[in-house]
Amino acid sequence: MAASFSAVWRAGVLTLLLAAVVHGNTSDYLDPLQPTTSDETVSVGGTVTLTCRVEESDNSSLQWSNTAQQTLYFGEKRALRDNRIQLHRSTATELSITISEVQLSDEGEYTCSIFTMPVRTARASVTVLGVPTKPQISGFEGAVPEGEEVTLTCTSSGSKPPAQLHWYRGEQRLTARPDVVESTPGEPTYSVRSEVTLTVSRGDDNALVTCAVVHPSLAPGDKRSQRALHVLYSPDVKIHPQSDLPKEGERFLLKCEGSGNPEPNTFSWQKKDGELGPQVTVDGAFLHFEMLNKSHNGVYLCQAGNGIGSLGQGEYTLLVQDPTAMASGSGVDHAVIGGVVAVIVFILLCLLIVLEDTSSDTKEHT
């Protein structure tokens, strides 16, 4: 009885070991006749290549079928009359076809089959990307006063999956409201809308605001639109003198320049802590001095306006130079220079005399 149980036990163990070995060999076994494919992604209007391969051939033919299980190619033979579908390569171990001018309706699962016993199949999923349209920017089109808010709207349609819209002012990314996504009736595509609100400053005048579409079917920057900002702001004022050294007795001119949008059209002049005085006339942006004298010294103010905000103001300090003092100072300078030159010449003459005496003494000794 014990011997019989031992024999049964050994047989059971051997059976389990054999089953494990067979299972292990089976799990590692790769069917050389099993076709393999890969999933593909393509944009509308593009071309996709579907490739089916087997490791070995038993002379059975490979076949591609579309999403409706219609045969496209059976080996080298075309089965469906669609000129967009062409044979790319046909060998004993490979069947590749191309589909050009891809449409959204081409999306789905394609089947590769090999007619062995039994028939073996593999599937390839084709994803078609809907290409978004160029974005359109709407909103303000005129000029806006400095400090006010501007709201711009950007829209793009035809994307699949939904596109993203990014805003930029110059190179700076802007924070916008979340995109609003709506499906297109009767189509598997989407339209996207985005809004951004800006508080404009004078530095934004003529700055470009950009709306760019971000989508896997596009390269960065492929589709974008721009809108220039136009900002109204009060003038910045500067006063420019006719000369950096205004001299007593000469004519002199100060010019008031204002940079604003629009350009300033009103100017007013005054002298700080005093009157403009005689022989001084105002001509719009210019202040004329017929003949400068010391009484004209002081700080001059110019105010410019363009109807936007407050007046812009600039100032200039006028110091009239005495031409006589300038000439005498110049004479002193020349005298000093002449004295220095005379000393240098005297030293050189002394050196020459010493050198000649030394040379004469040397000759007498020889």
UniProtKB/TrEMBL annotation:
Signal peptide location: 1-24
SMART domains: IG, IGc2, IGv
Mode of membrane association: Single-pass membrane protein
SUPFAM superfamilies, per the entry: Immunoglobulin
Stretches that traverse the bilayer: 335-355
Domain of life: Eukaryota
UniProt record, GO biological process: homophilic cell adhesion via plasma membrane adhesion molecules
Alphabetized UniProt keyword annotations: Disulfide bond, Immunoglobulin domain, Membrane, Repeat, Signal, Transmembrane, Transmembrane helix
Location (main, coarse): membrane
Compartments (UniProt record): Membrane
GO cellular component: presynaptic membrane
InterPro entries on file: CD80_C2-set (IPR013162), Ig-like_dom (IPR007110), Ig-like_dom_sf (IPR036179), Ig-like_fold (IPR013783), Ig_sub (IPR003599), Ig_sub2 (IPR003598), Ig_V-set (IPR013106)
Domain Ig-like: 35-127, 135-230, 235-320
Gene3D superfamilies in UniProt: Immunoglobulins
Record has Membrane as a keyword: yes
Name assigned to this protein: Ig-like domain-containing protein
Source species of the chain: Mugilogobius chulae (yellowstripe goby)
